[in-house]
Automatic annotation (TrEMBL):
Protein's name according to its UniProt entry: Acetyltransferase
Keyword Transferase: yes
Lineage of producing organism: Bacteria, Bacillati, Actinomycetota, Actinomycetes, Frankiales
Coiled-coil regions, chain positions: none
InterPro entries the record matches: Acyl_CoA_acyltransferase, GNAT_dom
SUPFAM superfamilies attached to this UniProt entry: Acyl-CoA N-acyltransferases (Nat)
Listed GO MF terms: acyltransferase activity, transferring groups other than amino-acyl groups
Amino acid sequence: MTPELVVLERTAFAALQDGVLDVYAEAMDVRPEAARSRRSILAAHLERDGLAAVGAVERVPGSDGPGRLVGVAYGYRGAPGQWWHDQVRAALDEQTARTWLEGSFEVCEFHVRPAHQGTGLGRALMSCLLSLTDAPTAVLTTPDADTRARRFYRTAGWVDLARDIRFPGDPRSFAVLALALAPGPVDAAVLEASS
């Protein structure tokens, strides 16, 4: 059965917080309790300007129930003063930060349960999510390693802005990636960043 994509308005997204964190736990291979400790972060994100969220719901045949969340993607407009935005901005040179971060859409979380990975669901989720913003660019971070996620972003046209970025409290190395969403001055930056 093919999951259905559902645009989640702010209140619907808030009501699905536990489901979102369960998808996160399974996709990231962490204990559900560890994922649910991120509830306060998710709650804070619900208040951000430009919030957009999409869920992939698997319906149970013959049931009127809401179905099971098997994928989720959300983000918002980044701005100075937000922790992630400020961390990333500090890692970039001024021109790159101005080109890619000003007015950008920050893809905060993007996860698909492992049983649904490799089916095209992730591409559909990301495409739907990015269609909900009028931002000129989208940015995100992902572990800086040759992972399935990294290959996914590369084939979808995302470019590296910075690599080997470390966030306080996390020993992993991350890459900052960006994607041009609207034609204009960023197009030239795409060529520079990808060369």
